[in-house]
Amino acid sequence: MSLAELISYLGLGSTYALGLALIAWGLLWYWRGGGVAFRDVIALFPAFFFVILTQYPFPDPASLDCSQGGVAPILRPFAVMDYFVRLVTRVGADWRHWIGHKVVQATVLNFALCVLVGIGFSRFLRSVGQITLAGFGLSLAVEICQLTGTFGLYPCPYRTFEVDDLILNTAGAFCGALLARRYRARTSTR
Where are the transmembrane segments (predicted)? Predict the structure, then answer.
């Protein structure tokens, strides 16, 4: 994926996620009778952005090859490590060669985005355990959506269900929870 394609992809995903966050904010405002801070939109945005980026772009159902059941799930934990080992063997350890690889981009983006999800969830949940569990739940919902072809809207899966994504995304939410906790501890002592 080129830099221009990445910027376009992230820009459109941001637009969709912001729209969903604003709708959620409006619904919260309505249900609570006001009193919902705009900070709540900012806190919800990473979760919506994560969901959008894991599903978008949506394929044309006619273009899917479902003859073999669609995209096969990857159920072996840490299977992505095989890819990284092959990449280091092939192109070397210089990080500049890695940037253009789709798997590397997706892995780094998944983790970073889930750190932000964990930070966002800390606005509504206080314990690191609750935030980590919520991050796992969000990741599991996304992976099930991918495994079922967007809950049956598509005739077969068009994205890969990966156990590694569950592990990585949960770890990201956990790190986000720790960062938010540390930030709260620092700001409360001032």
Answer: 6-29, 41-58, 103-121
